[in-house]
Amino acid sequence: MSLFLLLIIVAIVLGIIGVAAHGLFYLLIIGVVVLVADLVYGAMRLRRRGGRHHRLR
Fold first, then answer.
1. pTM: predicted TM-score of the whole model, two decimal places
2. Distance, CA of 30 to CA of 16 (rounded, Å)
3. How far apart are CA 24 and CA 29, in angstroms?
4. Helix pair angle (2-20, 25-49), 10° resolution
């Protein structure tokens, strides 16, 4: 879960820097790619774990 959140933060920071700095539009593109890859990773983890529910102790 921490990897998922870290990648979300990295994508947001790269997007902000890419928009704010002129000539660094490629950082915005990289941020969007990281965000999409992170969402796919999160969806795969949820789907894989789907049928089994973990109990809290």
1. 0.69
2. 11
3. 9
4. 160
Largest Cα–Cα distance of the chain, in whole Å? 52
CB atoms within 10 A of CB 14: 21
- Tens-place pLDDT, residues 24-51: 888 888 888 888 988 898 888 888 766 5
Alpha-carbon gap, residue 46 to 57, rounded angstroms: 21
Phi-psi region of 23 (alpha: psi -120 to 50; beta: other; left: phi over 0): left
Q: Which residues of 20-51 are buried (b: 16+ CB within 10 A; e: fewer)?
A: eeeeeeebbebbeebbeebeeebeeeeeeeee
Residue 26, token pair as written in the block: 């490629």
